[in-house]
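Discussion board: Methods & Data

I've been asked by a reviewer to show the raw model output for two of the constructs in my manuscript, not just the figures. I'm not sure how much to include, so I'm pasting the format here to get opinions. Each protein appears as its amino acid sequence followed by a line of discrete structure tokens. Is this the kind of thing reviewers expect to see in a supplement, or should I convert it first? Here is construct A:
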Amino acid sequence: MSQEKVNRYKEQKKNRKEIMKKEKRKSMIEKAIAGVVCLAIVGWLGFSVYDWTIGSKTTSDEVNVTAITDYLNGLNAEE
């Protein structure tokens, strides 16, 4: 059992550089993916807030149609 531990330690020590590179690469990939996900969430929230505040406002225009109404009433009066 003790010799097995010693052999395992020697193997780990021999491959320590490769193991550290793999761990660093894995850590960087995880951070990059987390960053992209966070950026997507922030972008989605920003768009939702913008759409909720600015996009949903409706404008109403008023049209004065009294001239048309008077004209139509004048046509009906002539009949």
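Construct B, same format:
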Amino acid sequence: MTYSEIRRIYKCYYGVTIKDCWIADVKRQLGFRVRNAYNRQTATILNRCPLQIVGQIAQVINGQITCP
């Protein structure tokens, strides 16, 4: 599933737009392999996903939430 599909489904279901870095953070937590951004200057993660939406994004990634 691509980042744009995840963003579209999340926006359709919850009505809120999410950041790509949040999706990457959740994917990392779920064990998916994620590349570093081309413009990243340090090895540290600056924009972690807020804890209250980690589960929601994980449900979208795992296919538990869909949207037409």
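Answer (T.O., handling editor elsewhere):
This is acceptable in a supplement if you add a one-line summary per construct. For B, something like: Residues 7 and 18 are 6 Å apart (CA to CA).
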